[in-house]
Amino acid sequence: MELAEHQSNLIADLERYSRKYPQESDTVELFIDFVKRNVDCFSRDLQEGHITGSAWIQDETGAFALLTHHGKLDRWFQVGGHCEGETKAQDASFREATEESGLTDLKFVSEEIFDIDRHLFPEKNGFPAHYHYDVRFLLKTSDKSKIAISEESQDLQWFISSAIANVTDEESVLRMVRKTKL
After folding, report:
1. Exposure of 44 in the CB half-sphere (CA atoms within 13 A)
2. In this predicted model, what pLDDT tens digit does every residue of 22-49 receive, in sequence order?
3. Which of 14-18, 50-54, 109-113, 152-156 has the lowest mean pLDDT?
4. CATH number at residue 145
């Protein structure tokens, strides 16, 4: 079976990520296996799961990170969501970041993947439980005052990085805090 270009590109990005974070190689292998088996891996209609794009947004100093209180899950997370037709997680990450934060001056720190996480999203509104293969990118803003809560969120707040553990015990969020300290 020949892979589509979007599959090959994502696999190459994941392989680069694995070299940078070898301790996450098991998760990378789950992602690569999923992408190889599913040409439609970016489609939210794929009931097994799908690639999603998220953003870890920091102010320009790197001292603060923006978290959203997820409306459906009732927990604090980074902004992000479904690819909505995009075949690049980076594009979905940027779109979701602007839609869910209201920020218009976001910039990628790097085009490389910042973090990945595979998590089970619970059954909601008749759609069965499924996996989100979340590909995350690091973005920064120079104006953290212009945030706007989207309809998908209960709240949106800047947290000093050292205080994020006070509002969430979500390991994937705490891992991103640690990665920004490297």
Report:
1. 12
2. 999 999 999 999 999 999 999 999 999 9
3. 152-156
4. 3.90.79.10
Q: Is the pTM of this model over 0.90?
A: yes
| Residue whose structure tokens are 């037709």 | 85
Nearest to 101 by CA among 134, 59, 131: 59
Of the pLDDT bands very low, low, confident and very high (cuts 50, 70, 90), residue 161 is very high
How far is 148 from 39, CA to CA, in rounded Å? 35
Tell me if 156 sits within 8 A of 76, measured CB to CB: no
Q: 32, 135 in Cβ contact below 8 A?
A: no
Cβ atoms of residues 157 and 66 within 8 Å? yes
Q: How far apart, in Å, are the Cα atoms of 127 and each of 14, 88, 98?
A: 28, 24, 26
Exposure string (b/e) for 27-53, b if CB count within 10 Å is 16 or more? bbeebbebbeebeebbbbebeebbbbb
Number of domains in the chain: 1
The two three-digit tokens of residue 151, written as one number: 């309809």
At 68, give phi and psi (nearest 5°): -115, 140
Residue 117: which domain range?
A: 5-180
Region 7-27: mean pLDDT is 98
